[in-house]
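Reopening this one. Same input as before:
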Amino acid sequence: MKLPVFAPRVRNLIHRNRNLFSGVFFVSAMLGGSVHAHQTYLLPDKFHHTEAETVSVALTSALAFPNMESGPAKDRIASFSVSIGDEIIEDVSFEEGGAALTMRFAAERLGTAVVAISSKPRAGEIPPEDVELYLDEIEADAVVREAFDALPGSPPLRRSYAKHAKTFFCIKTCDGANKLATPAGQKLEFVAGAGSFRLLLDGKPLAGKQVTIVPFDGETSSVATDEHGKILVPDALSGVIMLSAVWITLPDEPDGVYHSDYATLTVDLGRLP
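Same output, byte for byte:
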């Protein structure tokens, strides 16, 4: 069965004054409903292909980037998109595996490739004894804590989440890199352009948002987006990195569902124009 592709844009479904701001030092595994410090991301077999060939891109969840530890089933995927330059690639195959769900497609043209994939939402509960740890790890602010703490007794925290992973790489050349600035239609996603990255929520720049930067080799760091959603990657960084962020939506009622959207981007800084 063919999976649906992303629409060009998504509607702004959430009122921003009901959403909360947090960092992404905690990410739940795409496969499970319990608390796990996993990241979910895409890793191409190469960030620079020397010629047109069959391309493999792995979707995995792991305790540490760039490990590959747990691959979701194909039916966990809600939507995906693959493009090289201005061309949409529709003939994409999926292979399930213990460490990763692998996407493959023929790179019949040259240029900059963009792969984006999102999971179906998943819901569950954080048991009372783990709520404080969970709120710490997602860096929930005082509004979330006060709302939840006001509930009588010691209830579990009801939560749901969705994962949005993205990667950029080049097929022989990096021509057509202007497409990196075009949203893929994910709820929360990273784009690139003019030598920098931006974080978007519903296709619009997200200001004042904490972003974690994890290099292939080296120390993890954290920065906040500016008023235009722009992310300043330290000049000292080079090579392959992962950017990650999370957006928390506050429910209408304190005993409602606290929804998280997690976004990651993998890219080789040396391959960006």
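So the earlier flakiness isn't reproducible anymore. For the record, The chain has two helices and 19 strands.
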